[in-house]
């Protein structure tokens, strides 16, 4: 799939520091909980923070699937990638886009960081420091 430079420029321009108010957007506590509730969403955010730029959806799918795949499992890596692709495109990416953590361009197959992602980095780091049982308590 060719990447159209005009579409890529549009995605990059929308997320340049001077393109919108660069004020940190505070997410409500409930939104932070909902985002952190999913391992896949956390992994997507980590990938975007590490990359510091747009990623192709297929690259993102591969990274998330590789992080999840257990070599001893019966399910093949291809099956895991297909499941990850479906869940990212239908559920996780739209939710993260709704909270302005990323921009998901379905036509180009690109995912780019959005205005709230830098402010969310500290919440993601705090989540890594908490034990899993504490994370589960957030749902109540």
From TrEMBL:
Residues 34-111 form the DUF7344 domain. InterPro entries: DUF7344 (IPR055768). This is DUF7344 domain-containing protein. It comes from Natronorubrum daqingense.
């Amino acid at each position: 799939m060719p990447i159209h430079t005009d579409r890529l420029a549009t995605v990059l321009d929308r997320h340049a520091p001077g393109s919108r108010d660069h004020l940190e957007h505070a997410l409500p506590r409930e939104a932070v909980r909902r985002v952190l509730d999913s391992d896949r969403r956390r992994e997507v955010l980590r990938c975007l923070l590490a990359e510091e730029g747009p990623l192709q959806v297929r690259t993102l799918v591969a990274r998330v699937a590789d992080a999840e795949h257990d070599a001893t499992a019966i399910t093949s890596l291809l099956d895991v990638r297909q499941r990850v692709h479906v869940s990212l495109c239908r559920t996780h990416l739209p939710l993260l886009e709704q909270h302005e953590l990323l921009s998901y361009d379905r036509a180009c197959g690109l995912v780019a960081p959005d205005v709230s992602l830098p402010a969310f980095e500290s919440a993601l780091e705090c989540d890594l420091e908490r034990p899993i049982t504490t994370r589960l308590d957030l749902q109540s």
